[in-house]
Amino acid sequence: MRPEAFPENIQPYLVPKPTGRLMYRCLDCQATFDIKELLYTCPDCGQVLLIDDTDPDRLKHVSGQTWRRIFDYRKMLTLPALKGIYRYHEFLGSILPLDAIVYLGEGHTPVVEASGPLQQRAGAAFYFKNDGQNPSASFKDRGMASALSYINYLIQEGTVSDILAVCASTGDTSAAAALYSAYLSPKVKSAVLLPHKKVTPQQLAQPLGNGAAVFEIPGVFDDCMKVVEALSGSYPVALLNSKNAWRILGQESYSFEIAQDFEYDLTGKVIVVPIGNAGNITAVMRGFIKFYQAGIIATLPKIVGVQSNHADPVYRYYQEPDPARRQFEPVTVQPSVAQAAMIGNPVSMPRVAHLVERYNTLAGQPHVFFVRVTEQQIMDWHLKANQHGHIACTHGGECLAGLREACRLKYVSEDDVAVLDATAHPIKFSGFQNMYFERSFPDAYEVSPDQRLINHPILVQPEGPVPTEGKPLSETELPRFVATVSEFIANALKLHRKSAS
Hints:
Layout: H1 11-14, E1 22-26, E2 32-34, E3 49-53, H2 64-74, E4 111-113, H3 116-122, E5 125-130, H4 140-157, E6 163-168, H5 172-183, E7 188-195, H6 201-209, E8 213-217, H7 221-234, E9 238-239, H8 245-251, H9 253-261, E10 269-274, H10 279-293, E11 302-308, H11 313-317, H12 349-363, E12 368-373, H13 375-386, H14 394-408, E13 417-422, H15 430-437, H16 477-492
């Protein structure tokens, strides 16, 4: 629909123009810096940054009810720039003109109610939000759409040129970075650093296919991240990890979409997310806070962050009940099927500590919780979800296992409804499924397959002539082959012949 077809009082808001004045704010020393610079940490103290508006109250000049109508009407527009995460332009990169926005189909991923039998097995009502249905098949596209739109804006302004974008990755970040950078080639090129043999073949194929320079580094993600930090500190490159505050900004759209999908009523809702590098849970908290302070939602949902016992520094930090005595300590990670979560020193930890306190204060009670699950639980629930008709990666399995643990700890009540983050497409992690079915997990994973969840193809080998490529069966041989194979399959499935009419 065209803007002129909408109610007159909404028309002025439908197609946004660049507004506001954004700035980087340091979480430690509170120093602020011009948004026209490519900054990732505070030049004064080295702490991570968040992007704030110099006039946050400007969003309150429009009522919450009006904002809800604006976003709902924007759903019907056909403008590419507003079809993705920038439907919420004023709450994301409000300074960006629409012609700078890079839209590759990201955002507005479906929220799918879990099947009845799966909800019964889980012991709670819940939905999966299928972020694996983003363009590069993971939630990372939200942040990349934001970061690359900003870089595109700087290119249009003449502030930067010939950008080399770099990132460290456990797989999904590199895929998204390479895809969005390739869209802006030749003005933007990309290089990604991956831990050697710790990325699935499917994830490795993605940045290679998009033309990125791919470097496999000994060690784990945390080692790759140190190299990327050194590169961004010494060379003119654009860092695309979640240390980049624009990445966090784009991922806030996850919260906005959930609010809209539930008609802006988040009473009794629980959002369950894996932690990983902690950028996602940071963005989820910030997104809901923004909508809450603008009056768009009246209630802040509970948030449950989940970590594997093979990479659990955030969970350990919050095991200390006294905030004054908490001290963050990185951990040495062990192999995990939730590869994106296999991070022992998340760069966004300072943001988490800052926002958890703020979120709980606004909610008036503890509303952010952390749970830990085992690798066994992750794999079992990952398979159970997919065997009940869902599109859940291992991180979706981690969230489902986390929901179970949160219910056990009474963080989630029987009246709550949860939304679980399926962060990527399960095809990316099909290797772990194969290892489970073949009982070939290395001991370090601590996964013992449950026979009830194992599935194998059944090879049918009938006697007599069989068709082969380029050599079809004759007219007399084919009926015998079809009858023999049909009977074998019917017996295997315990089918009974139809009664004669």
